[in-house]
Write a structure and sequence with these properties.
The complex is a heterodimer of chains A (372) and B (174). Chain A is built from 17 helices and no strands. By secondary structure, chain A is mainly alpha-helical. The longest helix of chain A has 27 residues. With 174 residues, chain B is mainly alpha-helical. Chain B is elongated. The chains are: A mainly alpha (372), B mainly alpha (174).
Chain lengths: 372, 174
């Protein structure tokens, strides 16, 4: 997806009033009403419990294709060759999401356009790390670019294969992209070499800077957008912090390095973050998040005899809070939530497809998180 | 300060009447247009997914349109009362009263309809979006629209009573 040239239409008012903000209750519809109603239309078409029940009863992927044809996905798998693979289903579903997102993006005007761009930066970061990791393992550039998420493509991504360390990454690739400033955090102390150890550190540093930037931008936008977006981004920040901590047990990542990766915008900041940076095992993590009620409930569900993983619990909570965005009006949060809910739907479909193709339909309900 | 009040008192009552007329139709149309653009954007957005235009949402737009009809009714009645010419010594007390009442009648209708239009816009937008998801909500939500419409009607009633009572006195024409 190319970066079309953006031009700021009204330089004069921008100089006087700063970058544009979304309208308030009486003027929101002028610029963004059409797209907001369009996204609400998408929400009515998300798969329901009924659809998931039908899909779970399928015996083969061809059955699933037939059932999906009756939902809003329609004939999206019509041109695929006969033995379907789960990766094909996932790619086609993602393609549909990307087409919908591009429709929104091409019809959006200024504050919404930047907001939708911010949603894309997360995928850009994932693509960058994918390409760097692939290059380290000596994969072909073309193959890597095919595996990148289409929402996060940008023009100079091909030249990532030539980067050896973080400052080259900045100078040659990222300086023209909007996520360039995010890597300045990596360049502070020492130049991070783009090798096995540091790739995850680079990813988390970029993502931390991105989340904080997005949070500040939402605060600037104000109104209904700020209310819900800041809650959603706080959850994202806390999720990253907890996941980084849990994944770092037993690796070489020291506690100092780890604490530099925690975003500073979450509910856990500063008290929980301090405890997390000192945590050594899962119990201490649980104690660190205990003072925030939703996370405490999350961890309670993950008792020793439960089959749910932390990731699944986080996905469930994410679905719950993203559904709330559709109850608000005159804000941009529902664009973000739409993307997140669609992603969860794609994960659900892929999970069902995997269970069906491996003949393990009994396990379907473990990983399925229905949206409604 | 005294000069300001003296200047205001010297403004001809016909000027006040004309201002009232302008505000009446002007602000009514502002409110009506505000409502229509707010509802229209959302109606078009949901109609893409439905595949057809939900004709029920045109009822919301019709309610907004009625507000500008109130404005034009009061304006036309006011134009029949407005007269030209003025007597030499100056306007009489009746003339002044008429001028002020016509200004106030226009301002009342205009402001009431403007506010009602904004209200109908926000509510109608919610109706367009929620009835696309849950069809049975429309009839109940229509009641909210009717209450919004009535706000404009109150303004028109007061203005009509006011303009019904006032008449410019017999003036000398040259």
């Amino acid at each position: 997806m190319e970066e079309p040239g953006r031009y700021d239409m009204d330089i004069f008012t921008q100089a006087l009033f700063g970058p544009p903000r979304p309208g308030n209750m009486i003027s929101f519809n002028i610029e963004d009403g059409f797209l907001e109603a369009y996204v609400r239309g998408f929400r009515t078409k998300l798969l329901t419990q009924n659809d998931y029940a039908n899909l779970c009863q399928c015996d083969t992927l061809e059955d699933m294709k037939m059932h999906l044809a009756q939902t809003e996905y329609g004939d999206f798998l019509a041109n695929e060759p006969s033995p379907l693979a789960t990766t094909t289903i996932k790619d086609k579903c993602t393609e549909k999401l990307v087409n919908d997102f591009n429709y929104l993006r091409t019809n959006a005007v200024e504050p919404l356009y930047t907001f939708l761009d911010y949603i894309r930066y997360g995928y850009m970061i994932d693509n960058i790390i994918l390409v760097i990791t692939g290059t380290l393992h000596q994969r072909e550039t073309a193959e890597l670019l095919e595996r990148c998420h289409p929402l996060g493509m940008f023009k100079t991504i091909g030249s990532l294969t030539a980067c050896r360390n973080a400052s080259e990454l900045y100078k040659h690739v990222l300086v023209d992209t909007p996520i360039g400033p995010y890597i300045l955090n990596c360049l502070n102390e020492q130049d991070l070499d783009a090798d096995e150890k540091n790739v995850e550190v680079i990813r988390n540093t970029l993502y931390k800077a991105y989340l904080e930037d997005f949070y500040n931008y939402c605060q600037y936008l104000g109104g209904a957008t700020a209310e819900l977006m800041c809650d959603l981004l706080q959850f994202e920040a806390d999720r990253r912090a907890i996941t980084i901590t849990m994944n770092s047990f037993g690796t070489e990542l020291g506690k100092d390095d780890r604490s530099k990766l925690y975003p500073s915008i979450g509910l856990l900041h500063p008290a929980g973050i301090l405890k997390l940076s000192k945590a050594d095992d899962a119990d201490q993590v649980r104690e660190a998040v205990n003072h925030i009620l939703p996370y405490r409930k999350l961890f309670q569900e993950l008792g020793p005899n439960s089959e749910k993983s932390l990731e699944d619990a986080f996905f469930e909570y994410e679905v719950e809070i993203n559904k709330m965005a559709f109850d608000t009006q005159m804000g941009y949060a529902l664009f973000y939530s739409f993307v997140k809910l669609k992603e969860q739907e794609i994960r659900n479909i892929v999970w069902i497809a995997e269970c069906v193709s491996q003949g393990q339909k009994g396990k379907v309900h473990q990983g399925l998180i229905p949206l409604f | 300060m005294g000069n300001f009040i003296t200047t205001l008192l010297e403004v001809s009552p016909h000027m006040w009447a004309a201002l009232g007329l302008a505000l009446c139709i002007g602000l009514s149309v502002v409110g009506s247009a505000w409502g229509i653009w707010t509802i229209g954007a959302s109606t078009l957005g949901v109609s893409i997914h439905k595949g057809k235009l939900e004709t029920r949402n045109l009822v919301s737009i019709l309610f907004c349109e009625a507000l500008s009809i109130y404005g034009i009714i009061v304006s036309i009645i006011m134009t029949t009362k407005a007269q030209t010419g003025e007597c030499m010594p100056g306007p009489s007390a009746v003339d002044r009263q008429t001028g002020y009442m016509m200004f106030s009648a226009g301002l009342i209708t205009g402001c009431c309809n403007m506010m009602a239009g904004i209200t109908l816009g926000v509510v109608g937008k919610g109706i367009a979006v929620s009835t696309a998801a849950v069809s049975s909500l429309f009839v109940k939500l229509l009641i909210v629209l009717i209450f919004g419409e009535v706000l404009g009607l109150y303004g028109m009633i007061v203005s009509l009573i006011e303009t019904g009572n006032c008449n410019f006195g017999k003036t000398c024409t040259f």
